[in-house]
Amino acid sequence: MIEQRIPISRDFLSISLVLNSETRSxxxxxxxxxxxxxxxxKDLIHKSNEIEKMLFSLIKSLK
Length: 63
Prior knowledge:
Layout: H1 10-32, H2 38-62
Helix pairs in contact: 1-2
């Protein structure tokens, strides 16, 4: 089996950061409108923050 490698571009990662921020905004709206509980909100915000840190680290490593 041949392993295929997909090149990671900084542009792609930058777009991912923007989309993560947009998702976080929607989470704040969802909890405010009571579509999700505070517990779920806190868990998802924590995960979003962790993803953001990983993306920043990856972007920094590509410079």
